[in-house]
Amino acid sequence: MKFTLTLFIGIITLTLNAQTDSEETVIFSRIGELSNEQLINSGASKLTFITDKKEAEKMAELDIRNETPFLLLAGGISPTIIATDPQFEKEYGIYFYEFGCTGPENEIMIAYNKLIFEHLNSTKGKKWTKEVRDDVIGFNEWKRNYKRK
Hints:
With 149 residues, the chain is mostly helical. The chain has one domain (26-148). Helix content is 55%, strand content 7%. It has helices spanning 2-19, 36-41, 43-46, 53-65, 85-92, 106-124, 128-131, 139-148, and strands spanning 70-74, 95-99. Helix 5 (85-92) links the parallel strand 1 and strand 2 (95-99). Helix 4 (53-65) packs parallel to helix 6 (106-124). The longest helix has 19 residues, at 106-124. The protein is globular, with a radius of gyration of 18 Å.
């Protein structure tokens, strides 16, 4: 019963929102600001084909140089969207990149993200560590190791 009611309310809300004349647009991520060429040429999009951590680090360095660094997320069937993502992305000059059910090996994503974490720390200070999503691949481990230094 609860599921049916929730589904019904969701459909009604979607229908009502679709019928409004409002010009307001909901932005889920800054990744839409990138051109197809930027996305295709990004290191993040090539990680699925990489098996070496050093190569993943090179991809992160390339994205930093091209001013298109990503924080990698592992998702499921549908992406997880957090309302504060666009503000975080804009403030810290990054893009969230969520792989679906299949993606690069975990170690490859951790190697890529580690360089992005270091980049954020050196350019933005430590504030970002309190605001970043907890589900960014490798973040919690990196944070624990960073505090030990």
